[in-house]
Amino acid sequence: MLGSHKKLTRDDRKCIETMISDDKSIQEIAAHIGVHRTTIDRELKRVSED
């Protein structure tokens, strides 16, 4: 299913931040937002590089 990627919104990124603080897993966060777990993993790596 190529080309069906969901771009993370500002709200999605805030949700990721909150859920990480609450010790939620990458899989839980991905399911909550509705994206693949690799999307969350990439976002966390992107943020950690800043």
List its salient traits.
single chain, 0% strand, mainly alpha, 66% helix, 50 residues
Describe what you observe in this structure.
The protein is mostly helical and 50 residues long. The protein has one domain. The chain has three helices and no strands. It has helices at residues 10-21, 26-33, 37-49. Helix 2 (26-33) crosses helix 3 (37-49). The mean pLDDT is 92.
The helix count comes to 3
Helix content: 55-70%
Major sheet: none
Query: Structural class given helices, strands, pairing?
Result: mainly alpha
DSSP strand tally:
0
Give the CA-based shape: globular
| Overall tally of domains | 1
Distance between the termini: 31 Å
Helix and strand pattern: HHH
Strand content: under 5%
> Unreliable stretches, pLDDT < 50, 5 or more residues?
none
Any idea what the radius of gyration is? 11 Å
Mean pLDDT: 92
Quick summary of this structure?
By secondary structure, this protein is an all-alpha fold. 66% of the residues lie in helices and 0% in strands.
Q: What's the structural blueprint in terms of helices and strands?
A:
Elements lengths: L9 H12 L4 H8 L3 H13 L1
